[in-house]
């Protein structure tokens, strides 16, 4: 799966956007490893803890930044898009 449609739509609407993926197995290219539901769930459980830590730290860092200029630029870009009228965003 990709996040491409969501990233493009968020950008067009002037919404800052980031994504995270939790990889659970590599069976698409590591033929010598047998993937089972149990092994996927074990890795997923470990990834959940890593993701929690990542999000807590990321939110703290994001909160330290003044995003006003970035948000303003994205709103200007959104207003300039061919399918949006200036009155859509305030």
TrEMBL record:
Residues making up the signal peptide according to the UniProt record: none
Pfam families hit by this protein: PNP_UDP_1 (PF01048)
Domain Nucleoside phosphorylase: residue ranges: 1-58
UniProt entry tagged with the keyword Oxidoreductase: no
Keywords in alphabetical order: Glycosyltransferase, Purine salvage, Transferase
GO biological process: L-methionine salvage from methylthioadenosine; purine ribonucleoside salvage
SUPFAM superfamilies to which the protein is assigned, alphabetical: Purine and uridine phosphorylases (SSF53167)
Name of the protein this chain belongs to: PNP_UDP_1 domain-containing protein
One of the record's GO cellular component terms: cytosol
